[in-house]
Amino acid sequence: MTSKDSISIHRCGLKSAPVNRSQAIFLKGGSNSALWKTLGLLFLVFTSCNSDEQFKKDILGKWKYEGIFIDEFIGFSRLEANSPLVKDWHSLINDSEIWSFKTSRELIVTGRIQDLNPNLKYQILDSELRMNYIDTDQMEKNIAQFTILEINSNTMFIEPLHKKSDDDTVFAFTRD
């Protein structure tokens, strides 16, 4: 045995097994493996949970409203035009609307028979899209909140943040 591997006798009389001190920091087996798994998981969480920054980049540009879909297990399917859910939501979104998201948080909605107000702003927090109206006192007032389900180069799916529990409707947009 070398001096590194010597048996230690503690004050209480217990003897400890020989331990190579070079292995004391990096133990073989479970502890080291668990440490690397934990570090790997933390790395994934911190690098993948920054979805709002990616959404802020992906949402820029013009998006044409395509209709209301149902979020099903296998994907999204379009609702029929005479569905009561479509009629309810069409008071909020018009078939001919185009939403233009600008880098200055400015949102321009065109294509309505009558525009609500040109003073709209948007904000993205995590996966939440908030639409705000700027009143005469220059205060932002929230008018709609959506959850961003998916954005890619051609399509965007959002759903109302506050809706009935049995409502699976999703708004679909394509890049214009």
Can you describe what's shown?
The chain is an alpha+beta fold and 176 residues long. The protein folds into 2 domains: 3-49, no CATH class; 53-175, Lipocalin. 22% of the residues lie in helices and 38% in strands. It has 4 helices and 11 strands, in the order ββαααββαβββββββ. The chain has helices spanning 21-25, 30-48, 51-58, 84-89, and strands at residues 8-9, 15-16, 61-72, 75-78, 98-101, 106-110, 120-125, 128-134, 140-151, 155-160, 169-175. An 8-stranded antiparallel β-barrel has the order 3-5-6-7-8-9-10-11. The protein has a two-stranded antiparallel ribbon with strand order 1-2. A hairpin with a 2-residue loop joins strand 3 and strand 4 (75-78). The longest helix has 19 residues, at 30-48. It is elongated. The protein starts with 7 loop residues before the first strand and ends with a strand. The model has no long low-confidence stretch (mean pLDDT 72). It comes from Nonlabens dokdonensis. This is Lipocalin-like domain-containing protein.
